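Bit of a strange request maybe. I'm writing a small parser for structure token strings and I need a real example to test against, not something I typed by hand. Could someone generate the tokens for this chain?
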Amino acid sequence: MALCAALVVIAGVLAYSNSLEGVFLFDDHIDIDRNPAITSLDSLWRVVAEQGQSGVSGRPLVALSYAYNYAWCGLETRGWHLVNIAIHVLAALALFGVVRRALMAPPLAARWSSRSLGIALASAALWVAHPLTTGSVSYLGQRVESLMGLFFLATFYGALRSFEARESKFWPLFASVSCALGTGCKEVIVGVPLLVLLYDSLFVAGNAAAAWRARRGMYIGLFASWPLLALWVFMAQGRSESVGFGYSEVGVWSYLTTQAWAVAHYARLSLWPDPLVFDYGIRPITDFARYAVPGVAVLAALGLTVAGLVRRRPLAFLGAWWFVILAPTSSVLPIVTELIVEHRAYLPSAAIVLGVVLALARVLEATPSALRTPLGWLLGAAACVGAVLATRARNLDYSSEIGMWLDVVEKLPDNDRARSSYGNDLVSAGREREAGEHFAKAVELSPNNGYWRSNLGTWLLSQGDVQRATEELERAVELLPDYGLALQNLGSAYTRTGQRDKAFEVWRRALEHGAPMAGTIAEQMTRQLVSEARSREAVEVARAAVNGAPNDARAVLNLARVLVEAPDASLRDPHQAGGLALKAVSLSGGDASAFEVLAEALVQQGRNAEAAGALQSAAARYRAAGRTAQAEALERRAGQLGGGAPAGR
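Reply from user aminoacidic:
Good idea to test on real output. This should exercise your parser:
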């Protein structure tokens, strides 16, 4: 058995060893590399509770794993991939144990017990190397799926062991604790108590009442996970922008028709994983010709599963495994940003892999006994090698964000989100001219998407087509009145056409809604307002920028500067300005101008010696940057302040 387990590990390592260079993609930026909540272990409560719109909001165990991963290797992706691979390999070992134990137990033992080890090995090795699992392993942010899968399988393994060791207290506790831990990973864990009870009712105790009586303590522990899961879901209200009827074109029926196609598609990919697509977009499938046949197939499979369970057919349990696990994400409550995603098939695909292995084992029964074992090993090895090679090839797509989006565009040219994302990556890569056609195509495909309009308008503005840029950005703001980036760029478009009042009006709204360049906007506006003797408005604008973007160093410094330089002495506040300047120093990594403003605030507080120190710090930074004249001027003033000379302004 140890050799078989080692072979499963080897298959997983070989399949994913070339994924270590993979980059952060898509939601990874919100969940990991731009997630301030995971950057410190000083407050574990902050790690769990301050996730906002990230994909680990309400998933505390994954959030903690991210925080410890960050503490270990920062944002160096190799360390993140190593942890994801380890989780996946452990899940495969748990699957190995589940399959082996299930085949050795009644009513399957008579037929499969002698071959349980080989079937468990083949199933786990094929699954761990299956290309469909890349969406939960190489896509770093989908640790939520693989870690949940590990605890799901561990729960089921503990339950199977408790069926064998009826007097044991350890295995029921193991199952219950595993289930509770799974609730901290992803809501799909909700199905495991039902599957355990179903298995027990059909194949062990005979019915649900008998199963409950025989193992009441374990089932209390398993179902106690539901209120715990409800607590995590309540905490996950930060994900309200991605779960629910957040898009006008996605309703109950359109989500169901989409899932009819998706569930059948996941089954096909479990059997033949090509082509794999990173992102299927956000438009539902409502064309009858597309969803009708898959929908009938899914309903037929569901009907056969129910009929098989009624007749206590063991293979029907694989159907139950498939449908119960998919039910939370493929039912009537839309996950509007992920209508179709391959990582949902991570754990369900194990049922199809096992079903194929069992079918091949039955075929091998017809072969001569002398050939049965070597032929079985040959088929299993060939399939596993093929899976390893296919997975290694797929891992290469995860090595570049721009390459991944190009892959999606090539496979699904009518995917508007992929078009827009690829355009953004082209801009980041300095290939701006190529980006325009993709931004335009995204708008053509989804004309009422304000984000795509904003991207196109921003691109047009960068190309100097101010009139068309203004039109697109105005439409984007109509669709998304609180989108800071669109408001920011619309204000820039207005300034280019001399419409300063309109620009300022829009920029004020942009500052209230977290404009990405809040500091730059605030600087420009406050400078103009001060020149027009509208200092009070300048202070208001500067405060709005900091309120909307409290960690924007430029915005913080601008407010500090306004509070020490306001012509109207009644508006000055050197004490608040000093605190803001210190914050700007920290946020900027020691910007020289932040030290200058800090020095001015300290002078106004009468703390000349400390002001001299701040000026010396600013001078040192200017000198290091080759700006000698500025450095010498600040050093002279620092000498005057340090020597008790009157402070000039």
